[in-house]
Design brief:
InterPro entries: P_starv_induced_PsiE, P_starv_induced_PsiE-like. The protein is 86% helix and 0% strand. The chain is mostly helical.
Length: 130
């Protein structure tokens, strides 16, 4: 009984979060289009907004995937989010080279983690290419 209640609460929360994320996604799209037709000296800000737009899109896609997978969220999608967020931070953070190097190593670790989750897929690709 409690599990059913919490499942419904989780589903309602994710639907609410999805609606909020759709609002912010459209807000970012509006800003990007506004700056595209009114160019200024804010190219870096527009690039940052485009990356944020794709992060919102990714989170909304994950919520949809959660419902399509019958209330299950595959671990590989969390790894995708980690890689995407880290790449976004590297692009936006241009001042600290050593921090970007460490973040690049983080991406490598996340990619290796993904390969460990899908060993059959990885071994089939290696065998097909070799």
């Amino acid at each position: 009984m409690f599990a059913n209640f919490f499942q419904k609460l989780l589903n309602a929360s994710l639907i609410g979060l999805g609606i909020i994320l759709c609002y912010f996604l459209l807000n970012e799209l509006f800003y990007i289009l506004k700056e595209a037709f009114n160019p200024g000296d804010v190219e870096h800000d527009v690039l940052e907004r485009v990356l944020v737009f794709f992060l919102y899109f990714g989170f909304i896609s994950m919520i949809v995937k959660y419902f399509k997978e019958h209330y299950h969220f595959p671990l590989r999608y969390l790894i995708y989010i980690g890689i995407t967020a880290t790449v976004r931070f590297i692009i936006v953070n241009r001042q600290n080279v050593y921090e970007n190097l460490i973040l690049s190593i983080v991406i490598l670790v996340l990619m290796l983690s993904y390969l460990m989750l899908t060993p059959k897929l990885f071994l089939n690709r290696v065998r097909d290419e070799g």
